[in-house]
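Quick review question:
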């Protein structure tokens, strides 16, 4: 025997919803006995008024690969392909060594606001926020050990 059941209550009809919840609460011991006897699964009620779950985030590997692509397209002309700059001032593989726990904040400030005195333009109008986050994932993946 297979069956599904759903109960819908008109929005704003809190009285009916409470009565149904109370009836199900009273029937819970019998529902559990029946489930155990016949082997059907019990699942929690789905709250359809709750916010939908957040979309799954891309895996770290995907974010790093996407970040490498964005980096090589927009940043490599100054910071070398794959962030392998031989020039220490532009070597992004040493950001964690240079800035420690402040690395992420320094990265976002430098990328969004730029460092015009050092020749770095602001990228906030050019790159989308998710692309900047992907570039950070890539840059984090290439950090040198102290």
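Suggested answer, residue by residue:
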């Amino acid at each position: 025997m297979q069956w599904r059941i759903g109960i819908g209550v008109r929005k704003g009809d809190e009285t009916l919803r409470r009565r149904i919840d109370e009836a199900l609460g009273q029937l819970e011991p019998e529902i559990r006995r029946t489930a155990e006897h016949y082997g059907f699964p019990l699942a929690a009620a789905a709250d359809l008024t709750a916010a939908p779950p957040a979309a799954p985030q891309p895996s770290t590997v995907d974010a790093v690969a996407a970040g490498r692509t964005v980096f090589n397209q927009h940043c490599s002309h100054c910071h070398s392909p794959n962030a392998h700059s031989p020039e220490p001032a532009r070597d992004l593989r040493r950001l964690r060594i240079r800035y420690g726990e402040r690395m992420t904040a320094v990265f976002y400030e430098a990328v969004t606001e730029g460092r015009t005195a050092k020749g770095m333009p602001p990228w906030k109008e050019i790159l989308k926020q998710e692309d900047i986050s992907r570039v950070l994932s890539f840059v984090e993946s290439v950090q040198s050990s102290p």
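Why it works: The chain has a mean pLDDT of 84. The longest helix spans residues 14-38.
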